[in-house]
Amino acid sequence: MEKYFCKNCGMKFSGIKALAASTCRNHPKGSHQGNHKLYEGSEKSRYTCKYCGMQAGSIAALTASTCRHHPDGNHQGKHKPAL
Ligand SMILES: [Zn+2]
Ligand SMILES: [Zn+2]
Q1: pLDDT reported for residue 56
Q2: Please, is 44 exposed, middle or buried when counting C-beta atoms within 10 Å of its C-beta (0-12, 13-18, 19+)?
Q3: Which member of 13, 14, 31, 33 has the greatest number of CB atoms within 10 A?
């Protein structure tokens, strides 16, 4: 079965429609201010933040903390998994 992950919170879905139909607690505009966004990279054993290079074992773990190299400013957003 295909798995789809939200790039903002790491939540896992079995279909793109379900992913795009519910709100995201880690949405860049604020918690639940928008819907999940598809992570378009492949599934990996380690995910790397494209801003600061931090690594985590899952997108959920990576996006759980703020990023000191976030483009909006120091810790103004979460880590973003590189594709
Ligand atoms: Zn999400
Ligand atoms: Zn980062």
Answers
A1: 98
A2: middle
A3: 13
Q: What sign does the CA torsion over 68, 70, 71, 73 have?
A: negative
Residue 2: the pLDDT is 81
Yes or no: say if 4 and 14 are a contact pair by the CB < 8 Å rule: yes
Q: State the Cα–Cα distance between residues 3 and 45, nearest whole angstrom.
A: 14
pLDDT tier at 47, thresholds 50, 70, 90: very high
**Which residues have C-beta under 5 Å from ligand 1, the single-atom ion?**
6, 8-9, 24, 36
Question: Identity (one letter) of the amino acid at 15?
Answer: G
